[in-house]
């Protein structure tokens, strides 16, 4: 049954999804005095992946007024990121406090069930109305409003209306899928197999809290410490390679652990907690992020390979910037504004900055340069800045980053860096 156009909107903005993008948008709008309704299909807390944050998340936390709550929650501090060869021959550590172009020296590693609940509760406290276990099954854009039909837990369908709709539905990608706007990145179909483990041997001392990225020949592991004993571990590989193995996901994961020395050594006393999880074909973009009365944010604007832990930062950044664009559109009384179009351009630019790193991470000539950093021209500091979450680079960092990628490109043809095995 299609939704109908009411004579008056009940809300200024309806937000589909209460994850980091949705809650950030809700808090931003509620703090600006807007009437906001969040429709979240799950009951929080709930399991979610994407547990490693970046230092530049801190700026958004401060803007939302939520940093003190995060600091009091006891999340693991993250001071750096380590990139390791699976065979153990090379290791590179990026210390966020020592980069020339980074303002924030550390981040946090979070268990998403606790973190997302904290953000959503903060949205409530700031004045947003939140309805959990509310599954959106239809929406309609009208001349003067947007109507949304959803099913609450244990009740009949309900219909609500607002001047604008923000789709922060995550990988469900609700409105874009309805409009067939999802486009997968060519040649980048991956599968992630992951779970939580107790007693993984993780770095201590100065490196305590570091995220580990372990590079194999055609795949990689993440190892994210969540507390003193719990670690999130995931394997990412090509879908084609996974299918060729003809085995169950858990078996593929266990075999990769066994044949990767760096991971195997750290798993000597590891015990799995709960079930393993699988996500496949997850890197995509939507070919339109804004249209009259509709804006897409977070993973509903696009999702990329998690190798550089950019997911939560990009989600919260787009949620904040998208909310500000909608706030402006409400003030102007227009269904589509130049500010909304600027939001789309900025969001695509931020995603593309990380996508360049992701594409190159899987290329041998780039990995050989990354695993053999050179202090020349402080190029590594420019890499550190982006991997810390700085998406607006000063010119002094930007040109160094361009030189770094130029050298990586030349390394494919000339021995710029010493040839090392990638395994």
- Overall structural domain count: 3
Give the % helix. 25-40%
**End-to-end span in angstroms?**
55 Å
Provide the low-confidence segments as ranges.
none
If you had to describe this structure to a student in words, what would you say it looks like?
This protein is of the alpha+beta class. It folds into three domains: 11-75 and 110-183 and 284-354, FAD/NAD(P)-binding domain (3-Layer(bba) Sandwich), CATH 3.50.50.60; 190-280, D-Amino Acid Oxidase, Chain A, domain 2 (2-Layer Sandwich), CATH 3.30.9; 363-411, no CATH class. It is built from 13 helices and 20 strands. Strands 1, 2, 7, 8, 9, 10, 18 and 19 form an eight-stranded mixed sheet that branches. It has a seven-stranded mixed sheet with strand order 5-4-13-14-15-12-16. A three-stranded antiparallel sheet has the order 11-17-20, with no helix packed on it. Strand 8 (134-141) and strand 9 form a beta hairpin. The relative contact order is 0.17. The mean pLDDT is 94.
Summarize it.
This protein has 423 residues and is an alpha+beta fold. Helix content is 35%, strand content 26%.
Descriptive terms for the model:
eight-stranded mixed beta sheet, 3 domains, D-Amino Acid Oxidase, Chain A, domain 2, globular, single chain, alpha+beta, 423 residues, FAD/NAD(P)-binding domain, seven-stranded mixed beta sheet
Secondary structure: elements and pairs:
Layout: E1 11-16, H1 20-31, E2 36-40, H2 57-64, H3 67-72, E3 76-78, E4 80-85, E5 91-95, E6 107-109, H4 112-125, E7 129-132, E8 134-141, E9 146-152, E10 158-167, H5 174-178, E11 182-184, E12 190-198, E13 211-215, E14 219-225, E15 230-238, H6 239-245, H7 249-258, H8 261-266, E16 271-280, E17 284-286, E18 290-291, E19 294-296, E20 302-303, H9 311-332, H10 338-361, H11 364-370, H12 379-387, H13 395-411
Parallel strand pairs: 1-2, 1-10, 2-7, 4-13, 10-19
Antiparallel strand pairs: 3-6, 4-5, 8-9, 9-10, 11-17, 12-15, 12-16, 13-14, 14-15, 17-20, 18-19
Helix pairs in contact: 1-4, 1-9, 9-10, 11-13, 12-13
């Amino acid at each position: 049954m299609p939704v109908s156009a009411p004579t008056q909107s009940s809300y200024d903005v309806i937000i589909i999804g209460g994850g980091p993008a949705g809650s950030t948008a809700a808090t931003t709008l509620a703090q600006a005095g807007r009437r906001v309704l969040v429709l979240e299909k799950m009951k929080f807390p709930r399991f979610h992946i994407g547990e490693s944050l970046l230092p530049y998340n801190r700026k958004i936390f401060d803007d939302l007024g939520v940093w003190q709550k995060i600091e009091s929650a006891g999340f693991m501090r993250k001071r750096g990121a380590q990139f390791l060869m699976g065979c153990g021959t090379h290791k590179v550590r990026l210390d966020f406090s020592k980069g020339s172009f980074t303002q924030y020296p550390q981040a946090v590693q979070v268990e998403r069930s606790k973190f997302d609940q904290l953000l959503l509760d903060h949205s409530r406290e700031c004045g947003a109305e939140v309805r959990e276990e509310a599954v959106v099954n239809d929406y309609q854009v009208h001349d003067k409003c947007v109507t949304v039909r959803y099913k609450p837990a244990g009740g009949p369908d309900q219909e609500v209306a607002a001047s604008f709709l923000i789709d922060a539905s995550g990988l469900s990608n609700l409105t874009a899928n309805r409009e067939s706007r999802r486009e997968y990145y060519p040649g980048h179909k991956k599968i992630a197999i992951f779970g939580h483990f107790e007693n993984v041997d993780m770095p201590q001392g100065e490196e305590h809290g570091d995220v580990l990225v372990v590079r194999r020949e055609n795949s990689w592991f993440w190892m994210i410490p969540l507390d003193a004993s719990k670690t999130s571990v995931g394997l990412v590989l090509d879908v084609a390679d996974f299918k060729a193995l003809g085995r169950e996901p858990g078996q593929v994961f266990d075999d990769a652990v066994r044949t990767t020395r760096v991971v195997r050594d750290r798993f000597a006393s590891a015990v799995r907690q709960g079930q393993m999880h699988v996500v496949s074909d997850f890197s995509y973009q939507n070919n339109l992020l804004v249209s009259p009365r509709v804006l897409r944010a977070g993973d509903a604007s696009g999702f990329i390979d998690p190798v550089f832990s950019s997911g939560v930062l990009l989600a919260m950044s787009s949620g904040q910037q998208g909310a500000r664009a909608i706030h402006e559109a409400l003030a102007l009384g227009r269904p589509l504004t130049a500010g909304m179009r600027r939001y789309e351009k900025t969001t695509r630019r931020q995603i593309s900055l990380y996508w360049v790193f992701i594409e190159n991470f899987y290329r041998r000539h780039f990995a050989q340069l990354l695993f053999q950093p050179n202090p020349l021209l402080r190029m590594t500091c420019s890499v550190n800045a982006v991997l810390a979450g700085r998406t607006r680079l000063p010119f002094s960092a930007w040109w160094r980053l361009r030189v770094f990628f130029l050298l990586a490109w030349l390394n494919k043809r000339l021995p710029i860096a010493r040839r090392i095995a990638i395994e």
